[in-house]
Specification:
By secondary structure, the chain is an alpha+beta fold. The two termini are about 40 Å apart. The protein has eight helices and 23 strands. It has a single domain, classed as 2,3-Dihydroxybiphenyl 1,2-Dioxygenase, domain 1 (Roll), CATH 3.10.180.
Length: about 350
C-alpha cells in the first residue's frame, strides 16, 4: 500500500489550512550564528524523498505526538515521588496507574530488577506510545507496517510493534485533551500587554504536555528512514552526521523525537512543555527544593529555541522542563548544523558537560 501526498499542491493547501488562525504567518528562517542553511538542492531532494515514501501525511495529522512513555525502575516509591514533585497528576487509567500532564499525555512505570532493566534494549525505557489522529490513519499504518514485521492489535485497538532502532512502540488513537492556556503577557518596550497586573509567579511547574523524547541509536540513518518513511515524520533540523530532529505532524512543535548517533541504544531524556520561561525557572527552582539534582540549566537552545532546565531522574536519563519551542510548518527550512558545544545552547547555567557537548561519546 502506498499513500502519497505533495506539500506544494492541493494537499499542501489542506495542511496550510491547519495553521491556527491566531498564529502569525511564519517568517523567513534566519541563519544561525556560525551555522549552515540547507541548500536548495538539499531541500528538493528531501521533499522528493517524502513524496516517494510508502507513507505520507495528508492535511489531517497522522502521528500527533507522544501519548505515553513507560519506564522500568527498581524503586517504585522514588519514581512515584519524583513524578508527583515534577508536577504530574496521578490517575488510574485502563492500563493501571499513570502520571498525567494537563493534556493527558502521561508517564507510567513498572518495577523490575537491575538485571531485568539492563536486559532491555533501552534499559529503563520500556516503550513509547504515539498518538494518531483518526481511525483511518491507524488502519493504514497497520496495513503498511504489517508488511514486514509483526504488528499486534490489543483489545483497545492500539498497535504494538518494534521499530527499526529496536524500541517497542505503540500506536493508538490519541487520548490527548485540548489545552486551554491563557498566553503569558509581556510588557515589551513600546508594546506593553500586561497592564495593571503583576506577572505570574510559579512555585511549582505544572507540565502541560509531553514535548519530545531524545534517544541514542546505533544506526541513525535506519532510524530516520523508519520514522520518516513508515510513520510520516518530518525533518525539522539536523546535526550533520550526529542527530536529527523529527516531528510527527506537518504543522506542529519543532520536534517530537530527536535521535542521536551514539553507536548503541540509549534513553537520553524526556521533555515536558510548561507555559513560559518563568515556569521553567520558577518550577525548576521549586523542583530543586525537593532535592532533585540539576543536570544542566536553565538555558535556551539554538535548535527549537526552547528554554530548558534538565534534571537527573530515576528513569535512566534526564527529565526536562521546556517552554517557547518553535512551531513550524512545511514552509520551514531545516538547518544543517555542525555539532559543537556552542550549538547546544545560546546561554546556559549549571552545565556539567553531560548535556552541553554534542560530540559522540
Amino acid at each position: 500500500m502506498a499513500i502519497h501526498t505533495r506539500l506544494d499542491g492541493p494537499d499542501y493547501d489542506g495542511i496550510e489550512g491547519a495553521w491556527p488562525d491566531d498564529f502569525a504567518a511564519p517568517q523567513d528562517r534566519q541563519r544561525w550564528p556560525g551555522g549552515e542553511e540547507s541548500d536548495r538542492d538539499g531541500r528538493t531532494a528531501d521533499n522528493a524523498a517524502r513524496r516517494a515514501s510508502p507513507w505520507s501525511v495528508r492535511s489531517k495529522m497522522a502521528v500527533i505526538g507522544i501519548d505515553e512513555v513507560r519506564f522500568s525502575v527498581e524503586d517504585a516509591a522514588e519514581a512515584d515521588a519524583y513524578l508527583i514533585n515534577w508536577g504530574l497528576s496521578r490517575v488510574n487509567g485502563a492500563s493501571g496507574e499513570q502520571f498525567e500532564c494537563a493534556d493527558g499525555s502521561a508517564v507510567s512505570f513498572d518495577v523490575r530488577t537491575r538485571a531485568e532493566i539492563e536486559a532491555q534494549p533501552f534499559a529503563n525505557l520500556r516503550h513509547v506510545i504515539w498518538g494518531v489522529g483518526d481511525k483511518d490513519t491507524l488502519s493504514a499504518l497497520h496495513d503498511d507496517l504489517a508488511r514486514d514485521r509483526e504488528v499486534i492489535v490489543d483489545p483497545d485497538g492500539a498497535l504494538w510493534l518494534t521499530d527499526d532502532i529496536g524500541l517497542r512502540i505503540g500506536l493508538r488513537l490519541s487520548r490527548r485533551r485540548p489545552l486551554q492556556v491563557q498566553p503569558t503577557l509581556f510588557n515589551t518596550p513600546g508594546a506593553p500587554a500586561r497592564i495593571d497586573q503583576p506577572a505570574v509567579v510559579y512555585q511549582k511547574a505544572v507540565p502541560q504536555e509531553i514535548s519530545h523524547i531524545v534517544l541514542g541509536v546505533s544506526d541513525l540513518q535506519r532510524g530516520e528512514a523508519f520514522y520518516r518513511e513508515r510513520l510520516g515524520f518530518f525533518v525539522s533540523d539536523r546535526y550533520i552526521n550526529r542527530g536529527v530532529f523529527l516531528r510527527g505532524p506537518a504543522v506542529g512543535h519543532h520536534h517530537n523525537l530527536f535521535m542521536l548517533d551514539e553507536g548503541r541504544p540509549l534513553f537520553n531524556h524526556l521533555a515536558f512543555k510548561v507555559r513560559d520561561i518563568h515556569e521553567v525557572i520558577g518550577g525548576g527552582q521549586g523542583f530543586a527544593k525537593t532535592g532533585a539534582e540539576t543536570l544542566t540549566g536553565p538555558g535556551r537552545h539554538y535548535a527549537s529555541s526552547g528554554c530548558f532546565w534538565y534534571f537527573k531522574s530515576p528513569f535512566g536519563g534526564a527529565m526536562e522542563y521546556v517552554a517557547d519551542e518553535d512551531v513550524v510548518t512545511p514552509a520551514w527550512t531545516p538547518t544543517e548544523m555542525t555539532p559543537s558545544p556552542e550549538r547546544f545552547s545560546e546561554w546556559v547555567f549549571h552545565t556539567k558537560g553531560e548535556m552541553g557537548a554534542l560530540k559522540k561519546h
